[in-house]
Design goal:
alpha+beta; Rossmann fold; Alpha-Beta Plaits; 2 domains; 6-stranded antiparallel beta sheet; 29% helix
Length: 331
C-alpha cells in the first residue's frame, strides 16, 4: 500500500503510515470559508470517523479528497498521490457519497456491471464486490425491490468495484433502522480487517464511537481534534452516578456534595445525581452520604462518551445531551 510517512504532532506517533495527509486544506465559496486550514493525518488500515455537526465542512472536505472540487489553498497526499493530481490515486479509492443512484428495473448485479463498464473497471470483480457487501443472495433481484439497507449495501458494493485501498463512506447509516445500523457496523469493520483504510463521515458521534478506532473532529470548518479513539477516551474523566434510597433525599444529597466541592447535575427522569469524579472516588462519595444519614441505592462509575468529549473540546454547552442525539440539532 502506497502511503506517506509523517512525524508531525497530529495525534499520531512518528513514523506511522498515513493513507491521507493534508496541510492547511482550505475551501472558500465567495467570502464564506467552509473548510479552514485543516491538517488531516489518517493512519493506513484504520477505520477513521470523521465527525461534526451538519454544515461543519465534512462533505466539502471529502469532495476535495476525491477531486470533485478544487481546494482554495493547502496541499495533501492520498495513498501517496498528490491532491493536485487526483488521477494519481483515484483508481485506488472507492467512495459512497450521499444516496447512490441505480437503475430500478435492473438487478443489483446488472447495475454493477453497467457501472464497471462505464468506469472501465474489471466486470469480473462484480461478484466479489457483491459478496463483500453481503448481497450475493439478492444480486439478481431488481433494485426496486431492495430495502433501504440493501440499497446502501449495493452503493458500498459499487464503491468496492476498483478493489480500493481507501474507502470513503459519507453517512452510510443514514435512514437505516437499528438492525440495518448493526449490520452496517459489522460490514465496515470487516473491510478494515482486510487491510483497507475506511473513512466514515457522520454527525452521530455515538455511532462513530462503536465502529472506529481513530477519530477526526471538525466544527465550523476547523479541526478540533484527531487521534485514536482510545486516547480520547483516556483523557475523559469518569462521572459517578449515585441515587439515594429515598427520592426525597436527592436534593439534600446534591447540596451536601456541592458543599464538599463536587460538581453535580441532578437527573430528574432517572432520580439520580451525576457527580464529576475529578479528585473524588466512589468510596469517598459513599462515605460522605453515609455520614449524613443517607443510604444509597445506586453507585456506579460511568465513562463520559465521545459526545461529551466533543462538546468539551469545542466549548459547546452540552446541557441536556443524551447518547445518540443528533449533533445536527445542536445550535
Amino acid at each position: 500500500m502506497a502511503v506517506t510517512q509523517a512525524t508531525r504532532g497530529t495525534g499520531q506517533a512518528p513514523g506511522v503510515r498515513l493513507a491521507v495527509e493534508t496541510k492547511d486544506l482550505t475551501k472558500t465559496f465567495g467570502d464564506r470559508t467552509v473548510v479552514d486550514k485543516v491538517d488531516l493525518a489518517i493512519p493506513a488500515g484504520s477505520v477513521c470517523g470523521f465527525v461534526g455537526p451538519n454544515g461543519a465542512g465534512k462533505t466539502t472536505t471529502i469532495r476535495m479528497l476525491l477531486g470533485l472540487i478544487r481546494p482554495t489553498a493547502g496541499r495533501g497526499s492520498i495513498l501517496g498521490g498528490s491532491l493536485t493530481e487526483p488521477a494519481s490515486y483515484l483508481r485506488k479509492v472507492g467512495a459512497l457519497i450521499e444516496a447512490p443512484a441505480f437503475y430500478p428495473q435492473l438487478s443489483g448485479r446488472d447495475n454493477l456491471k453497467a457501472l464497471a463498464r462505464l468506469g472501465q473497471l474489471n466486470v469480473g470483480g462484480v461478484g466479489s464486490a457483491l459478496a463483500r457487501a453481503g448481497l450475493t443472495e439478492r444480486a439478481d433481484d431488481k433494485y426496486r425491490s431492495y430495502s433501504l439497507g440493501m440499497k446502501q449495501r449495493l452503493g458500498i458494493a459499487a464503491a468496492l468495484l476498483p478493489d480500493p485501498e481507501l474507502l470513503i463512506l459519507d453517512e452510510p447509516t443514514n435512514g437505516l433502522d437499528p438492525a440495518g445500523i448493526v449490520e452496517m457496523r459489522g460490514l465496515i469493520r470487516s473491510f478494515a480487517d482486510d487491510g483497507m483504510t475506511v473513512l466514515v463521515s457522520s454527525h452521530l458521534i455515538s455511532e462513530i464511537e462503536q465502529i472506529c478506532d481513530y477519530v477526526v473532529m471538525i466544527r465550523a470548518g476547523r479541526l478540533v481534534h484527531q487521534g485514536p479513539v482510545a486516547d480520547l477516551r483516556a483523557t475523559q474523566q469518569r462521572d459517578v452516578i449515585i441515587a439515594p434510597e429515598h427520592d426525597e433525599d436527592r436534593e439534600r444529597l446534591a447540596k451536601i456534595l456541592e458543599a464538599a466541592g463536587c460538581s453535580t447535575t441532578t437527573q430528574d427522569a432517572e432520580g439520580t445525581v451525576r457527580v464529576a469524579s475529578e479528585g473524588v472516588s466512589a468510596a469517598d462519595l459513599n462515605r460522605l452520604a453515609a455520614s449524613n444519614g443517607i443510604t444509597l441505592r445506586q453507585l456506579a462509575e460511568q465513562t463520559r462518551s465521545l459526545e461529551r468529549a466533543f462538546f468539551a473540546l469545542t466549548g459547546t454547552d452540552d446541557a441536556g445531551l443524551r447518547p445518540g442525539q443528533e449533533m445536527g440539532a445542536i445550535k
